Amino acid sequence: MKITLYTSPTCHKCKSIKEFLIQNNIKFEEVNAFENMDKIKEIVEKTGLMNLPLIDIDGKFFSIKNLDELKEKLSLT
User: Fold this and answer.
1) What is the per-residue DSSP string for 29-47?
2) Helix (H, G, I), strand (E, B) or coil at 63
3) What pLDDT, on the 0 to 100 scale, is given for residue 3?
4) Can you give the pLDDT at residue 64?
5) What pLDDT digit, counting tens, does each position of 44-57 carry?
6) Does the domain spanning 3-73 belong to CATH 2.120.10.30?
7) Residues 64, 70 contacting (CB under 8 angstroms)
8) pTM > 0.85: yes or no
9) To 5 degrees, how large is the angle CA 42–CA 37–CA 13?
10) What is the C-alpha to C-alpha distance for residues 23 and 77, in angstroms, rounded to an integer?
């Protein structure tokens, strides 16, 4: 499973999602959205998703609202 997490340094939800992934030994790549605006624009145009954190799981993009939703997307529930 390839996971990319798009975050912002000031996003509290982003931090909690990142901490959860680390604590559960789930490998992921973190991308700062503000340092990669071209990629973010491409994702928004492709998916319509505009909220952080954004997560790409094997090429499928999701806007994660809470840890329960993340667990569901990762099939951890």
Assistant:
1) EEEEGGG-HHHHHHHHHHH
2) strand
3) 96
4) 87
5) 899 998 889 999 99
6) no
7) yes
8) yes
9) 95
10) 16
Q: Are strands 60-63 and 54-57 parallel, antiparallel or unpaired?
A: antiparallel
The predicted pLDDT at position 36 comes to 86
Instruction: Show the low-confidence residues of the chain (pLDDT under 70).
Output: 77
The number of CA neighbours under 13 Å toward the Cβ of 7 is 18
Residue 21 CB-half CA count within 13 A: 24
Write down the pLDDT at residue 75.
Answer: 84
The two three-digit tokens of residue 55, written as one number: 């997560």
Which residue has tokens 């959205």? 33
d(CA 23, CA 17): 10
Give the helix/strand (H/E) hosting 3.
Answer: strand 3-7
